[in-house]
What does this fold into?
Amino acid sequence: MSRRMRTYYYAVLGAIGGLVGWQFSNLLGLSFISNIYLSEAIVGALIGLSIGFFIGIAEGVLTLNLVQAGKAGLIGGGFGLAAGMIGLPLGELFFQVAGAGWLGRVLGWSIFGVLIGLAEGVSGKKQAWKGMLGGLIGGAFGGLLLESSYTWLKDPLTGKITGLILLGASTGAFISLIVVLLAKAWLEVTSGKLKGTEFILDKFMRQGGPAIAIGSSALKSEIVFPDPDIAPQHAMLTSDGINFSIKDMSMSGTFIDNKRVERGQLVNGQLIRMGNTELVYHEKRS
It folds into this structure.
């Protein structure tokens, strides 16, 4: 999936999360709780759990890696639960006590977005600040749409549903968009079942940072290709903080520009082949 389409699917999954979160909170019926802040914390936790989970699974779904999707979904759901539990009552506090009006609630949703973005950084091993920045913008914009929907739509129920869908979509879209726009290195799949998919590599761009295994097994590799000619753990990708290198760990070989290599330093535009899958390495120097 291209980086543009990646943002689209993050938005769609975030929107689904907002819709499911509304349904969960609506089914429980929390009107029996007299304390408004406790009520907001519970409702926020349910909404955050749902939005965080669906945004969390996005990367794994797009790359057909169900193991990654499950792990990231649990992390995203957990952070989302905390995000909603903190963000919603905090926004209400700003609204009721500080006299900040609806902008206070938007601020609360901004904090909500930051924590959702942090979850995306932790689960995907990305540079967390990018996810947090995207979540901040997405949460603020989505919160603005949420609060505005109550004014635009006469029916409160329709306004709430629409607002939560827009909140989830905005949070997911901006988390992905910021990561994409600030990406410095990525792999583009040009052949195979994942053709068009792009793997952003910025999370490994530091000296002494984690290496990433590339292979066909979701249990042994982080970047996974459904290609029977790729070994379960076919190659290892590392960075010295400036350049990326790839090391072959297979019997069938790893090829750079159609030349078999044991280890090779990657340069912008190079073609990498493993099994029947081809990738192009891209980098953007500042």
Remarks:
- Residues 66-96 form the longest helix (31 residues).
